[in-house]
Design brief:
Elements: E1 10-19, E2 23-29, E3 32-40, E4 45-52, E5 60-63, E6 71-80, E7 85-89, E8 93-98, E9 104-107, E10 114-116, E11 132-133, E12 136-139, E13 143-149
Antiparallel strand pairs: 1-4, 1-6, 2-3, 2-5, 7-8, 8-13, 9-12, 10-11, 10-13
Length: 152
């Protein structure tokens, strides 16, 4: 349940999830279908679900389908604005693309360590400096981040 929302304002519910089997997840906001669902895979990734507040209080319900297996949910955030963030978790990298007009801070998976890519001198050496990233990463509006996984 989320309280204190402004009626008419667009929001995004962002959920960090993974499953031990590929599965389709639907999220219902106050019983309303979120216009489809998402395919949740075996890697931790955040999934945004947009909705417009019709009251100050909202409840969220997950429909996980008929597959046997585990679904892990780590964090749930409600962010103001229609989030246009897309993420892809690869075996050795995490790619985050922010298509919205607003900067977004992404919470990274717990206990995960990433490294920014290292730019050549003619590229953006301020952002792509090869530094270690943990906890969260800022993805500016109309921009992206490519983070290499630090593997054990």
């Amino acid at each position: 349940m989320q309280n204190g929302l402004k009626v008419g304002q667009e929001y995004a519910l962002v959920v960090w999830m993974k499953s031990n089997v590929q599965r389709r997840i639907e999220v219902l906001v106050d019983g309303q279908d979120n216009r489809g669902g998402v395919a949740v895979g075996t890697q931790w990734l955040h999934y945004p679900f947009s909705f417009k507040a019709s009251s100050a209080t909202h409840s969220f319900r997950f429909q996980i389908g008929g597959k046997t297996g585990e679904l892990h949910i780590d964090k749930m955030l409600v962010l103001r604005g229609n989030i246009g963030l897309i993420g892809r978790d690869f075996a050795r990298a995490l790619v985050l693309a922010n298509m919205s007009g607003t900067d977004v801070t992404v919470q990274l998976p717990p206990s995960a360590t990433y490294r920014r890519i290292l730019a050549t001198p003619d590229q953006d050496t301020v952002v792509n400096d090869g530094s270690t990233v943990t906890g969260s990463v800022l993805v500016p509006a109309k921009d992206a981040r490519i983070l290499g996984k630090v593997l054990d």
